[in-house]
Amino acid sequence: MNDAIKPGPETLSQATGLPQLSVVVPTFNERDNVTVLYRRLEATLAGIPWEVVFVDDNSPDGTWEVVRGLARQDPRVRCIRRIGRRGLSGACIEGILASSAPYAAVIDADLQHDETQLPKMVGLLQSGEAELVVGSRYIEGGSADSFNKSRAGASQLATEVAKRVLKVEIADPMSGFFMIRRDKFEQLAPQLSTQGFKILLDIVATAQDKLRTIEVPFTFGSRQHGESKLDSMVALDFLGLVLAKLTHDVVSLRFLLFAMVGSIGLIVHLTTLFIALEFFNVPFPEAQAAGALVAMTSNFILNNFLTYRDQRLKGFAILRGLLLFYLVCSVGLFANVGVAFSVYDQEPIWWLAGAAGALMGVVWNYAMSGLFVWRK
Ligand code: GDD
Ligand code: MN
After folding, report:
1. Nearest CA owner, ligand 1 atom 8
2. ipTM at complex level
């Protein structure tokens, strides 16, 4: 076929019913919500060829089973079941990349977002007025009245931080409800973080002012079934994202958490050393070894719960991981001391040499842990 008469993606999808819009729905324990959402999508998107991609992180309540049931009845429904991985942002990215329509929307499964806005959002992208459309609670006509006081305060604080620190210009960067042009998303995707909750904030902060953006108001509803997965860890994720974007990805949240756990490890080490020496009269070399062992163990546990909680080791894998972690850290100690010695050799400043060694140790332990202990 000659290029001039080749139909563009939009005309082609209208003619063939190929999806014009991919709706991506991250799910974790949303068994009672997915069918309702599917029916609502079906009603509201009647005039637009669409598909829906559910991305489920192996929900214990069997959400993926329900989605599979839907997919068997309707080929527009697809289910990605991820095993051994957790995380809202990562699920959204994977869902968008697995879909193929020229426009992709992300919407929560729990019916708190307003799917009736989708046709309007598609219209704004199709007309070329926008490349990104954000469902916004904080513009005229939108609201988040269903939030309790503390959640409302946290949301406002995070929004302020995002605007001031990351120079994000939209009213509701913390929203999880948006639609974006596929080509624009694919360009940004390699820079997005799969960790955390705030995919939209990541998108707007990464694109800076390069995405023509329009906000449409919506009312954040209340949850009918199941419960929110937002916990206090989400605040940490948020800070990590802000930091990563500020430092142009030089400092990642994972590395920071790893380093923070390492500092806690130092305190654990010294405390153990002190207790062994003072209360149990253990000779220094043994006390020091005990300190190192206790600190490595507590570092491993903390990292497994915090730093790598999206890839947490469970069951038998914990023991294997712990032994590997001991090994990694022991080699890391050599790297630490080696670097400290050579720095001290050239410049006998104790704190500089000590800090360089410690930094080397952390970087080594971090890199090797990611390779061998919590590998994807
Ligand atoms: N696949 C996957 N993996 N999905 C997840 C995960 C996960 O680890 N955690 C949560 N989800 C899904 C939920 O099943 C739901 O469909 C959606 O992501 C939102 O999660 P909720 O637990 O309902 O979060 P929320 O209501 O507190 O937060 C929402 O509001 C925020 C605005 O304040 C989310 O939409 C946020 O993105 C939004 O920023
Ligand atoms: Mn919710």
Report:
1. 87
2. 0.97
